Amino acid sequence: MDIKLSLDQPIIYQIKVSGQPRANWSDWTDGMMVTAVHHSDDAPVTTLTGAFDQAALLGLLRRLYYLGLPLISVNCIQQE
User: What is the pLDDT of residue 20?
Assistant: First the structure.
């Protein structure tokens, strides 16, 4: 897959964090696909998928940090 990265062009990212979204997440997850997977004894893993430019991606990562959700991974999926 050949992805041309740019600071101002939206790219689809998949972000995984440890923890589960709360009901009030819907206010700022508009346009993102949010899924949570629960494994037996481990904390749930939440995956957020959406298109962001670099500034929006950094803002989202900052918000996840302030919510206390440990970052597992950030993957560039494809150009929008």
Answer: 81
**pTM summary value:** 0.82
The answer to whether residues 1 and 78 touch, using CB atoms and an 8 Å cutoff, is yes
The residues near 39 (Cβ < 8 Å, ≥ 6 apart) are: 45
Could you tell me where the DSSP H helices lie in the chain? 54-66
Asked if pLDDT for residue 24 goes beyond 80, the answer is: no
CATH code for residues 11-79: 3.30.70
Tokens of 75: 């993957």
* Residue 13, both tokens: 């990212």
Gap between the Cα atoms of 69 and 78, Å rounded: 24
Confidence at residue 25, expressed as pLDDT on a 0 to 100 scale = 66
Domain positions in the chain:
11-79
